[in-house]
Specification:
The chain is an alpha+beta fold and 534 residues long.
Amino acid sequence: MRDHVIAVDVGTASVRAGIFDKTGTMLSRRVEPLRLRRPGARRGEYVSDDIWQTTAMAVRSARLASGLGPERIAGLAFGATCSLVLLDRAGDPLPLFTDDSGSYDTIAWFDHRARDEAAELSATGEAAVRHSGGSISPEMQVPKLLWLKRNRPELWQKAGDFFDLADFLSFRATGSRQRSLSTLATKWFHMAENADPWPRALFDRFSLGDLPEKAGAGIPPCPPGKAIGKLTEAAAEAFGLDCNVTVAAGMVDAYAGALGALPHPGMKAPGEFALIGGTSSCLIGYGPDPVFAGSVWGPYFSAIYPHQWPFEAGQSATGGLLNHLLEIHAEGGPATEARHEQVNARIASMIAADGPGFADGLDILPDFHGSRSPFADPAMTGMVAGLTLDKSFDGLCRLYWRACIAIALSLRQILEHLAENGIPATALHLAGGHRRNPLLSRLYADVTGRPVHVSPTEDVVLLGSAVNAAAASGLHAGLEQAATAMRTTGHTHNPDPALSDYYESQYVRLEILQACRDALRSVDPAAQRGQRKT
């Protein structure tokens, strides 16, 4: 009996695979590291074949660990970052860079090389811009592809297919070039609500008229919960499965997470948002009507559930910021889970002794990799005020704690921005890696003043992909039925009213630091030099 599914989550630094039964119970989970090339501070590239081979390794080991035979697996679904895979007309890698380590044909999701192109697209005021919160992010696919056409025209001429990473994995698994409606809607300016879903006038304006063809425009996209196809013989062999496994339409990881974290449309109350926290953080909601707000991506028609309109706000560096602080501090080191736990344990003891204000005097702006929301400025940088010469482990813990507070304060700022635009939040469903950080998950409730429902699932992106696979393979009658059967409820952090005044004062300090940053950015260095000379 085929009564289990495999879910895959390809993140920034690793691939995770999990085996789930039809109730949403995860039998096994395996993680394999990914190789990432960083040619610059805001650039990243992968080898797509590396990603495929690593995915196969994770799937094989997870299935073996579950004790299930291949004949028990009904379906498989991929969730992945919105990295961009470039292939030539023969389906081979179209490398941006090649050395002895491989052909790097995949632009990482966080890569900001297309910042200028994103600004030019934003200036058009087209409908795609409105559906991107009024400002196109360089993390989306169209600005990256505009950069490619301008800067590497020889590659564009050879290009056969451009894939969102989740769609590339579906292609390698099934041989089908059919894309997912979810990936196209959220990252490619595809608007399925229109008779012609592609913004052809916008593309023609930037000499991108052939982009839809290279993005699979000739094949209607597949919505979540539906099947792309079956595993090919080669993919089945690589995964240690058989060719009777159904592959679902892939999803961008954050939206797979929202599928796993949020109740389905018949059960979700207004104002319930998923907070998917990992390297970055995504705040996702959905509803039956389109809503627009500055710096909020979307709304995207049917990107999760049919005829619902998801939207997304986000923080560019959250878990990535905490990793960075560990890696640059004298008492830090590699940002392993064990090291995070050691720091968290020491912070908990410092809070127990002196309260949450034990590190007061340090203030941080967490925008080390730009701001998605509410400022939509990819060039924005972070700040730290109140530094001393302290190089001790406790000094690291103080810095780490204040960074956690800054991340939570910035989330509160996003929620206030949403409320001002008619999208108030009533509760947060926390999932992703942040659910394993007890300090951060507690802070989200205390700082925002909203209850935070913490997912009991080890990895909600895997759960969302499992729901997707279960619907596509027929284990459940549809996406809503699969979500109902497989989603479980975790514990809840309610905000502590005794701390509201303290975090209100910290919010004021955040705004003061933001005003200082704005003042510094307004200074024209050339003009200032001229004034000093006179």
